């Protein structure tokens, strides 16, 4: 639910705990779902509806969980970076949808520094929907990366009991096939280069 004023010229809605919501006079206060508020022409408060505010609101819980799960969590430029020994993640907040989205970086070799995390491209993590809280994503990341670290090097030894395990198996198989194709291309290139050197030396 969101709080807004009947007589507000700015037409802004607030979260109940927002300091600006507390300033609205009781006789002018209205309470409704944010979707209904937007249909009436209200817009989100810039103070209480953004990544920085939502992170600060749950900061103690986030930092406590991150410490227990051995994660590095850093807020930079309205983006939340999460780094583990097995992965690098980015959490964004969509003000228009009032939801968080999760992005992932592939091919991380150990825990990278924050500066590197800010430079590299990320992709949307397709198997997890938009979420209403940062904590939900942190728990997902912990399970995802713990499973990734426990995976055998040979994808054929990976379990396929659950649908998620099957997805990971298929993804690992595709990665192995891509690596094999790259190795084969490199081998052909090496052979071609050596053939070229032999021809030059024969002339």
Structure, explained:
This protein folds into three domains: 48 residues, no CATH class; 99 residues, no CATH class; 46 residues. It has a five-stranded antiparallel beta sheet. The chain has 203 residues and is α+β, with helices and mostly antiparallel strands. The termini are far apart. It contains six helices and nine strands; from the N terminus they run βββαβααββββαβαα. It is elongated and about 85 Å long.
Please tally the helical runs, counting DSSP H or I stretches of 4 or more residues.
Answer: 6
What can be said about the biggest beta sheet? 5 strands, antiparallel
Strand order of the largest sheet: 5-6-7-8-9
Shape: elongated
Ends apart, CA distance between termini: 82 Å
Helicity level, as a percent range? 40-55%
Domain module tally: 3
Structural class: alpha+beta
Strand content: 15-25%
What low-confidence regions span 5 or more consecutive residues with pLDDT below 50?
none
- SSE string, helix = H, strand = E? EEEHEHHEEEEHEHH
C-alpha Rg, in Å?
25 Å
- Strand elements, count: 9
- What is the averaged pLDDT score? 85
Summarize the entry for a quick read.
With 203 residues, the chain is of the alpha+beta class.
Q: Characteristics of this structure?
A:
203 residues; alpha+beta; 3 domains; 5-stranded antiparallel sheet; 4-stranded mixed sheet; 9 strands; elongated
Protein topology:
Blueprint: E1 2-5, E2 12-14, E3 29-32, H1 34-39, E4 43-44, H2 51-57, H3 59-68, E5 72-76, E6 79-83, E7 88-94, E8 99-105, H4 114-119, E9 123-124, H5 134-150, H6 163-202
């Amino acid at each position: 639910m969101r709080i807004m004023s009947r007589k507000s010229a700015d037409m802004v809605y607030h979260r109940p705990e927002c300091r600006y919501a507390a300033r609205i006079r009781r006789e002018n206060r209205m309470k409704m779902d944010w979707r209904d508020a937007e249909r009436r022409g209200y817009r989100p408060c810039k103070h209480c509806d953004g990544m920085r505010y939502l992170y600060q609101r749950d900061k103690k819980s986030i930092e406590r969980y991150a410490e227990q799960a051995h994660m590095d969590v850093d807020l930079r430029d309205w983006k939340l970076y999460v780094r583990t020994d097995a992965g690098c993640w980015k959490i964004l907040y969509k003000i228009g949808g009032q939801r968080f989205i999760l992005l992932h970086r592939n091919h991380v070799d150990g825990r990278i520094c924050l500066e590197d995390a800010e430079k590299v491209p990320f992709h949307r993590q397709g198997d997890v929907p938009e979420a209403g809280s940062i904590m939900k994503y942190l728990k997902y990341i912990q399970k995802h990366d713990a499973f990734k670290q426990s995976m055998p090097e040979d994808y054929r030894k990976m379990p396929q009991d659950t649908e998620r395990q099957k997805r990971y198996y298929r993804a690992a198989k595709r990665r192995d096939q891509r690596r094999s194709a790259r190795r084969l291309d490199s081998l052909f290139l090496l052979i071609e280069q050596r053939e070229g050197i032999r021809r030059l030396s024969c002339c």
